[in-house]
Amino acid sequence: MARVEQFHNKNQFVIYEPSKATFQSYESTICILNNDSIETLRVGRRWDYSKTTLKHFYMFLEEYISYVWVKIKDSKNKRKAFQEILDSKDPRIVYDENLF
Predict the structure, then answer these.
(1) For residue range 20-34, what is the model confidence (pLDDT) as tens digits?
(2) Can you say how many angstroms the Cα of residue 54 is from the centroid of all Cα atoms in its chain?
(3) Distances (CA, A) of 98 to 42, 71, 77, 94
(4) N or C: which end of the chain has fewer CB within 10 A?
(5) Per residue, what are the HEC states of 58-76?
(6) Residue 38 DSSP label
(7) CA atoms of 90 and 87, how far apart (whole Å)
(8) pTM score, two decimals?
(9) Mind listing the pLDDT tens digit for each residue in 70-92?
């Protein structure tokens, strides 16, 4: 059974289900963190849709995915730093064009 919680703002949500947490901004699914045998992050195409979405996406990373947050937190350009992580083909972080 899913549980929905507001995430720092009235239009940002985390949806908890067994073995996964979904971050949603307004009507868009930004990413899904799967906690099966290996923690994986599926990132949708709207992860950098707006400054507000990015701000909350970074907050989600900081709270839920520390191994990613550590890599981008001190960067002057966090968006570029995260894009480089996506481009690196780390098997734990997957870009999903169909996630929106």
Answers:
(1) 999 999 999 999 999
(2) 9
(3) 10, 26, 26, 12
(4) N
(5) HHHHHHHCHHHHHHHCCCC
(6) S
(7) 8
(8) 0.92
(9) 999 999 999 999 999 999 989 99
